[in-house]
Amino acid sequence: MTSLHHTLTILGATGSIGVSTLDVVARYPERFSVYALTGASQIDKLFEQSLQFKPRYAVVLDDLAAESLRARLHAAGSQTEVRCGEAALIEVSTAPEVTAVMAAIVGAAGMPPTLAAARAGKRVLLANKETLVLAGQLFMDAVNASGAELLPIDSEHNAIFQVLPRAHREHPYAQTLQDVGVRRILLTASGGPFRTRPIETFDAITPAEAVKHPKWSMGRKISVDSASLMNKGLEVIEARWLFNARLDEISVVVHPQSIVHSMVEYTDGSVLAQLGEPDMRTPIAYGLAYPERVDAGVRALDLFAAGRLDFEAPDYDRFPCLRLAFDALRAGGAAPAVLNAANEIAVAAFLDGKLPFNGIPVLIEAVLADCVTDCRAETLADLLAADTLARECATRRLT
Ligand code: NAD
Ligand code: MG
Fold first, then answer.
1. In a domain, 24, yes or no
2. Is residue 15 within 6 Å of ligand 1 at its C-beta?
């Protein structure tokens, strides 16, 4: 069911997506109110956001942060109550007052509250792609069982959603893509900052170079993923689940200008695309206002300034992470969960200066080889166990 007014929980409010979400929310106080804001770090930002948006709850990860935030909010005369821990994240994602949950925590840590929101039948604005990589089948089963409204926020998936036939977009598991005349999903990729960098210099890539994305401003983890093209790999898995697509119905197209955000090819030869400035407020506003449209504060696309749009095939030798993700999706079972966990450890190690950039795919491949066969993938507990095992295995290999 859609309603003009939404009461929101924003998971990961202090991050890049969280801040962009609040920017859109602030433009429409009559449409959106904030029930809860959550953040793991950047408590100063959470404090400021709590004063501005007056949520009923602010949720942090640990007691220490909770104590200090509570004292500061109290001193500032705020009515916001401070909670902490995973149980609190789940409570604010499932509370009856909440109609929509923005899932913008980074990494597998975002999965439990996002799944809880889906089970509770909320409108789920899904930025946290790792939820679908870790537990795609379970998550989509939960959405289908509860009637939750799932709106992709990842720019590519939001673009695909916008150009799919409405029947498929709203009930993707009622029929196949083929049934609605879709031949292929064309997932665009910017190619990241190292698309043309000489491959023999990849071992010298620094964290500062890797997080400096040419087109998008994002959190550190997804920026490194974009540089290795693991982000595109995770997005292939995300697309598989969101749109009930087979692997051979998803193609990756490198498009350095990041103006075409993705495309859908129909059986009659038509290709429909969604274009726009690379600004996450567009998909966020789309998800918040769906099925209506609102001004997102995004400047109009100037095609004359853009001048040209280029397209090229992805280079799997340069970016082995993309191939690893396709392989993990093909293998199924716990492989995507293991891939995701190993990638999180690898990216953190790279950002810490403990692993060279081109060591990221090497570590992930080794962890997949080490532990996938030991993992089951039937239940949520199985997947969480696979996630833990892969993290342990990756950490052991690093020391
Ligand atoms: P970010 O690092 O800027 O923000 C992450 C948020 O999650 C912060 O609020 C942080 O405090 C919180 N957080 C981190 N670890 C946590 C934990 N263990 N438990 C609870 N909260 C935790 O990240 P981002 O760029 O905003 O990305 C968020 C998600 O959205 C990611 O899954 C990313 O892949 C996806 N996404 C981001 C963009 C983008 O443009 N930034 C685009 C598409 C998809
Ligand atoms: Mg994306």
1. yes
2. yes
Residue 114 lies in a domain: yes
Residues 323-353 as b/e (b if ≥16 CB within 10 A, e otherwise) read bbbbebbeeebbbbbbbbbbbbbbbbbbbee
Q: Is the CB of 111 under 6 A from ligand 1?
A: no
Domain carrying residue 15: 6-152
Q: 108 CA distance to ligand 2 centroid (A)? A: 17
- Rounded CA-CA distance 309/328 in Å is 31
Query: Is the backbone peptide bond immediately before 314 cis, with ω within 30 degrees of 0?
Result: no
Ligand nearest to the CA of 258: 2
The verdict on residue 200 lying in a domain is no
HSE at residue 107, side-chain half, CA atoms within 13 A, is 18
Q: Is the dihedral of CA 233, 237, 238, 239 positive or negative?
A: positive
15-50 pLDDT, tens digit each: 999 999 999 999 999 999 999 999 998 999 999 999
Kindly report, residue by residue over 176-197, the tens digit of the pLDDT.
999 999 999 999 999 999 999 9
**Calculated CA dihedral for residues 180, 181, 183, 187, nearest 10 degrees:** -60
- pTM exceeds 0.90 for this model: yes
Is the CB of residue 149 below 6 angstroms from any atom belonging to ligand 1?
Answer: no
CB atoms within 10 A of CB 199: 13
Ligand 1, residues 14, 16, 213, 221: which to mutate, most atoms within 8 A of Cβ?
Answer: 16
The CATH number covering residue 114 comes to: 3.40.50.720
In a domain, 223, yes or no: no
Asked if 73 and 50 count as a contact pair (C-beta separation under 8 A), the reply is yes
- As for how many domains the chain has, the answer is 1
DSSP category for residue 299? P
Whose alpha carbon is nearest atom 16 of ligand 1? 40
**CA gap 50, 41 in Å, rounded:** 14
Q: Tell me the CA–centroid distance for residue 388 and ligand 2, in Å.
A: 26
